[in-house]
From TrEMBL, chain A:
Signal peptide: none annotated. The keyword Cytoplasm does not apply. PROSITE patterns: ABC_TM1. Belongs to the binding-protein-dependent transport system permease family. InterPro entries: ABC_transporter_permease (IPR051393), MetI-like (IPR000515), MetI-like_sf (IPR035906). It is a multi-pass membrane protein. It comes from the Bacteria. It is found in: Cell membrane. This is Sugar ABC transporter permease. Keywords: Cell membrane, Membrane, Transmembrane, Transmembrane helix, Transport. The keyword Cell membrane applies.
């Protein structure tokens, strides 16, 4: 045992420890991510696949594996209620996203004018987002109920002919969903835009002012294009709120009057879980997925590609 | 230390001993509204007096839709409750899938076949063996009324025909009340419609249309006439029916805002809870033109297959308890229904229950006994859902002609069947 001997052994031990640390450093992130990846693969993609398989079967009350081809899809498209639900989603989703974007942007621009009490106002507008959609639905159900809410109030002020009975009118009920959902989400969109606006350099405004551009023009030609990534995330978030809207419908209209405010999500639930038509319900779930993909993939593709080029 | 130890050992031993013949069984039910919750609690107390434990698994939601959803997810995951409230043709479906146990032992011991009406016990048998136990008989075709409101409106007696009904409705409306309280939920729309259909078409037609699902009956002139009468009822209701729960509608009758309601006799529980006496504070009569008919809704408890002997015993004990004369009396008084045992005297029941039994006997003798479609007694859940869709859509769409609704009814039933 010479001193050098023990020295070299110590150093090699240290090197071993270092390489262990190195391996750990390399492996640890994967180790940490692996369970959630596995869970996501199984519970998201696995169940998507299962739903697709079920949509090809004649499953009724419980899953069965008697394959019937595309028969469930044929039944789905022959179903009156499905057409109502799909049309409703287009109306509801389109209006909801558009109004939220416009309203959110307007609120954000007004709040960005260095006004007093901005913090308090911001909280007030953002607050509805803190409520669950069930609460929003119940509150608006009372507000929109003709004999309890807004109509009764205005009539009690003396405007006897005032009518606001959208909630009980099959043709208009879908718009009550839009009202409630916009109330809930536009404050959140405002916050997104506000954060975006704050990220824009003040010198841009000053330079534009020097060039003689009016303020609306500055917003339209300069600020808005800068906010494009914010619009992108806002649309993403709003679109998924719109497509998975279920609790709001349940609390606000219960799908009624009749099934006038049925959305694909409530259609799917009713058929899969309460009516013992798992096959048909799965087919509608797959159609929802296809709808989402049809909108999102081109959008994602164009947005991401452009950003890479830019 | 030592005495404590022996105490613990003793307790463990005692627990082990009771384990042999007592068990905890989970009971899924949807009796959560006023009178119904009271009734469920009563059953629980009775079972616990026998030494078993009732693990309550109540899922709210009138009609049991949510409860059935929960039951399915529990069954798919391989963990169904020991006992679940299921009714009508659904019991057969669960039985055919092999989920249900066999309680013939207690049925034979207590000779169920002797006192259960065969029309009803058929629902609880799978391949000739009892797999479920019926609890009560609800009648659907009732007209509930607030006599004070009727008097104020100048209506002397409850309407016997639909023409009388609409004449009375005008008087009630003119006096400033809502003629017919209703909640705009699909099952309530269907409840009212099936009562109208029974009256307009008669029991045989009802069976042809809603049990046999005969396409000719579904598109016939009688069906169109029933649909038209049904749609006309919209005018006797207030404009805010959308989404209203049935018990809120009942409370409109109780508080004197509305005059009448068409609803099964579970509504009686709400009147009783409000401290009202039948034939004095409120009236119950057969809905127009359905005097000798009885559309029934029978609650049953189905027994799921369990391996544990203690649990099997607990299931049998529960089944025996449910059909004991004593329980049939107290329970049905609280629930508003009538005993499913034909040999239980109704002497100390209220007037509504007595007239319900009379109607049942008369209907049984004359062939006027029909299963309620709106309450899942007549057809499978998918056909029922399809009928609900058409009925509720027709009722809420001011522009849809009855002829078109009848055609849609036939095609929706065909597609769902």
């Amino acid at each position: 045992m010479t001193p050098t001997d023990s020295l070299s052994r110590a150093s090699s031990r240290r090197a071993g420890r270092r390489s262990l640390a190195g391996t750990l450093e390399r492996v640890l992130p994967r180790l940490v991510v692996a369970p959630s990846l596995a869970v996501a693969l199984f519970f998201v993609y696995g169940y998507m696949l299962w739903t697709f398989i079920l949509s090809l079967t004649g499953s009724r009350m419980l899953p069965q594996y008697n394959f019937v081809g595309l028969e469930q899809y044929a039944r789905l498209f022959a179903n009156e209620r499905w057409h109502v639900a799909a049309t409703n989603l287009v109306v509801f989703g389109g209006l909801f996203i558009a109004i939220c974007l416009v309203l959110g942007l307007a609120l954000a621009i007004f709040l960005d004018q260095r006004i007093r009490q901005e913090g308090a106002l911001r909280t007030i507008y953002l607050y509805p987002m803190a409520l669950s959609l069930i609460v929003t639905g119940v509150v608006w159900r009372w507000l929109l109920n003709p004999s309890l809410g807004i109509e009764a109030l205005v009539q009690s002020w003396g405007f006897e002919n005032f009518r606001f009975d959208w909630l009980v009118d099959p043709d208009m009920a879908i718009y009550t969903l839009v009202i409630a959902a916009v109330w809930q989400a536009s404050g959140f969109v405002m916050a997104l835009f506000l954060a975006g606006l704050r990220g824009i350099d003040d010198s841009l405004f000053k330079a534009a002012a020097l060039d003689g551009a009016s303020l609306p023009r500055v917003y339209w030609r300069i600020v808005l294009p800068c906010l494009r990534p914010v619009v992108f995330s806002a649309v993403m978030i709003l679109a998924h709120i719109a497509i998975k809207s279920f609790d709001l419908v349940m609390a606000l209209t219960g799908g009624g009057p009749g099934y006038a405010t049925d959305l694909p999500a409530t259609f799917m639930y009713a058929h899969t879980f309460t009516r013992g038509q798992i096959g048909l319900g799965s087919a509608s779930a797959i159609m929802m997925l296809c709808g989402v993909l049809a909108i999102l993939i081109p959008y994602l593709y164009s947005e991401l590609r452009e950003r890479k080029h830019g | 230390m030592k005495p404590l130890y022996t105490l613990a050992a003793g307790a463990a031993l005692a627990a082990a001993v009771t384990q042999a013949n007592a068990a905890e069984i989970e009971v899924l039910h949807w009796w959560t509204s006023g009178g119904e919750a009271k009734a469920a609690n009563l059953l629980k107390q009775k079972l616990e007096a026998k030494g078993h434990t009732w693990k309550d698994f109540a899922v709210a939601g009138g009609g049991g839709d949510s409860a059935m959803t929960v039951l399915k997810s529990r069954a798919i995951s391989g963990n169904p409750p020991a006992v679940a409230q299921i009714k009508g043709p659904l019991i057969q479906e669960w039985g055919e899938m092999g989920f249900l146990g066999n309680i013939d032992k207690v049925a034979k011991e207590e000779n169920w076949d002797a006192f259960l009406p065969p029309e009803l016990s058929a629902y609880d048998k799978v391949d000739g063996h009892y797999a479920a136990v019926p609890v009560n008989i609800h009648r659907i075709n009732w007209l509930w009324a607030n006599p004070e409101v009727l008097e104020k409106s100048g209506v002397d007696s409850l309407p016997r025909t639909w023409d009388e009904f609409f004449a009375d409705a005008r008087k009630i409306r003119d006096a400033g009340f809502v003629p017919l309280a209703h909640g705009g939920q699909p099952w309530q729309d269907a409840t009212v419609f099936e009562v109208v259909l029974m009256g307009v078409g008669g029991a045989d037609f009802y069976r042809k249309a809603f049990v046999d699902l005969d396409p000719e009956a579904l598109t016939s002139d009688t069906m169109v006439k029933a649909l038209k009468t049904f749609k006309k009822l919209r005018g006797a209701m207030d404009p805010d029916i959308a989404g209203r729960d049935w018990n809120i509608a009942t409370s409109m009758v109780i508080s004197g805002k509305a005059a009448m309601q068409i609803m099964g006799d579970w509504a009686k529980g709400e009147f009783t809870a409000a401290g009202m006496t039948p034939s004095e504070d409120y009236l119950c009569e057969a809905a127009p033109m359905t005097e000798h008919m009885f559309s029934y809704n029978v609650d049953s408890f189905a027994m799921f297959k369990v391996d544990d002997k203690g649990k099997q015993q607990a299931q049998m004990d529960l089944a025996g308890l449910i059909l004991s004369k004593d329980f049939q009396t107290t329970f049905n008084k609280a629930k508003g229904s009538i005993p499913v045992r034909m040999d239980v005297p109704l002497d100390d029941f209220d007037a509504c229950a007595k007239s319900s039994r009379e109607a049942f006997d008369a209907a049984q003798a004359q062939g006027g006994l029909v299963p309620s479609l709106a309450h899942g007694m007549a057809v499978s859940a998918s056909v029922q859902g399809a009928v609900f869709d058409v009925i509720t859509n027709f009722f809420n769409d001011p522009d849809m002609p009855a002829e078109k609704a009848a055609e849609r009814l036939a095609s929706a039933v065909r597609a769902a069947g």
